[in-house]
Amino acid sequence: MVALTRTLSPALAGERLGAVLMAGLLGLGLLFVSGFAPTVALHNAAHDWRHTHNFPCH
């Protein structure tokens, strides 16, 4: 029986690393922005999003 091994080419490994780094930076950015934003600004953003997507909020 032949064992199949999966190897990544250097180009694919670099793309995967880039995607992981970008996702991490985006996540940290969202945490930073939401952590330091005033509560009213977050409420208004969520409220506007709900109206944009036709969800009732009142």
UniProtKB/TrEMBL annotation:
<protein>
    <submittedName>
        <fullName>CbtB-domain containing protein</fullName>
    </submittedName>
</protein>
<keyword id="KW-1133">Transmembrane helix</keyword>
<keyword id="KW-0812">Transmembrane</keyword>
<dbReference type="InterPro" id="IPR012667">
    <property type="entry name" value="CbtB_put"/>
</dbReference>
<dbReference type="Pfam" id="PF09489">
    <property type="entry name" value="CbtB"/>
</dbReference>
<keyword id="KW-0472">Membrane</keyword>
<feature type="transmembrane region" description="Helical">
    <location>
        <begin position="20"/>
        <end position="42"/>
    </location>
</feature>
